[in-house]
């Protein structure tokens, strides 16, 4: 708790400002001893000691081990209390639910996964997600939930946390996702497109806070997350990066969004399944045909595996998808000039069969300057990626965006962090 009325009411006095800065220096690892804090802040030894005592009393910092000596007595290090709160992450996919909890430093503590069809609607989906969250929280010591992240496979108005006309999420348009979690945990909640979480996960994995990166996910649908100098570019309303619904030249394919000729309707995972099933019905043979004869389902994953095993039908479908996606990414490269393109999702698991075609189209259609230092790589495919990304998004919103608003309270609250919509 805060020590006096000045801190309780969060007034930005010099005392509160310097205290906030000291906590952030320790939290980010820029300074971990009292002498380092004094050098970076310019505060005297007595003031530094007083502020650190306040931060310890408020529960933000604690003493750690002794650091290396520079000749005199070894200084005691300081640690941010990352165990003081929990972050809850709920990553919804087209065909799965994945939830996890993390410490305040972003470390994933526990997770659970379930196959799930997002088209079952928001009520049943969120009930199931909350049950899964309760399951993993029950395995942990009783620690307060400080914030919740929800990733959804569709466009999101980031300010309100509501999906907007998501093509693969019937019944979700305008649904107040945030409210269910706020009621359950009495904590601030942020909702974002799932591919933005994957882009943030890549930023954390690379430990590059200033990276210019595009994460392109080719799963059941297609989307892109854009990082500009390490910050997610969502656009005015949260629609930035939705390349799945750009028009493919000469295409008349009907898309699930209601339009015709969308990239997703030609190159997304569901489109590949559609085309594969049509070819198999016409008598196509090979690995994929045998897979179906043995009772297997045609999925984006099975098509990618068949391509890697040399199936001619699967290879042709994957390579065509890659060429179309490469053309769309090339437009982003010319406009956005990223340093890294990361390709993930079920279709991309075909590996170099897919990635080589993407690279070729990007280099053919992009400006030489835009591709001079560009690298195009596959995602590592770690199942924790969306959970790590959700934790990164929460840490960014809590500590980089809203920390001064709730710092003096000792923990975030909905009214301090999320403005009324």
UniProtKB/TrEMBL annotation:
SUPFAM superfamilies the record matches: Actin-like ATPase domain, Winged helix' DNA-binding domain
PROSITE patterns membership: ROK
Domain of life: Bacteria
Gene3D superfamilies: 3.30.420.40, Winged helix-like DNA-binding domain superfamily/Winged helix DNA-binding domain
Family: Belongs to the ROK (NagC/XylR) family.
Protein's name in the database: ROK family transcriptional regulator
Higher taxonomy: Bacteria, Bacillati, Actinomycetota, Actinomycetes, Micrococcales
